[in-house]
Amino acid sequence: MTRRLNFWLLVLLIVVGLPCYWLLIDNRPGDTQAKPVSMARLRELAASMPGKAPSAVEIELVSYRRLPGTLFVAGGGVKRNLIGVMAFRLPVPGGRPIVIDSGMTPAAASAMGMEKFDPGAQARIDAALREASTVLLTHEHIDHAGGLVALRDPAIFAQARLNPGQVPGSPLAEQLPWPKGLALQPTLTGTAPQAVAPGVVVVPAPSHTPGSQLIFVRLADGREFLFTGDIATMARNWVQLRARSRLVGSHFAAEDRGEVFAWLRTIRALKAAAPQLTVVPGHDWEWIAFNPGRRGMKEQFSPPAQN
Fold it and tell me: Among residues 5, 137, 178, 301, which one has the fewest Cβ atoms lying within 10 Å of its Cβ?
């Protein structure tokens, strides 16, 4: 009887335990190395364009849901984490702001199973997009690009600096509900970091998606931020060098796991070189809201400037 029980327990472990370990816990990072991106080069590029740098970082939380941490941090445990959909506004003194990511629509939030959607927050994001001199996306998923696409405004699209992976024609971007007949060309090309505004640098980082990029911001007062998008969905991704689970990263939102690890190593190297750098994860609202290391990021966008 005991031998038979042990046999079936072993079968159960193999049939259930091994797939669970592989899909939710295994985190072997492989041997990919950090990319040759340095803080010195990012700072040089941030200072290369004339004009005023942004003065602050403002945040809007437009939607959220709670999911087990191990989905987004392999081996991260079953405790549910608050996964927030956010956008960021960089006010520029005497000028128009820069917006990073764009929120999403109520319909998209519902389709993704979000617990809450804040229409007031999305309205403030929409107003910021209309006012912006430059719109940047960390990548082309609907919870980052959806607000921009939903406005369906050619004037706003003209202010969006998009890379080839973020425009219609790229496989993931093609799934977004762009206006029919839209001919949108990328204005960010190449594989090297490039300045897009005073104090703002994009770092092409295809990995989580083909259009993924890091965005480095150096404010006028010298504070520095690195927006990771979903390369580091949670702060623990880069702190602990843990990618998303394979269940998510291979089956629900397919990504290049090796390249994700390379960019997580790059983020860690940049942070080590600049300890005061604030690394802003793509969805980790609890870290952003409660971590003192966020260094004065302001919740809620300021209203548009009155002309």
Answer: 5
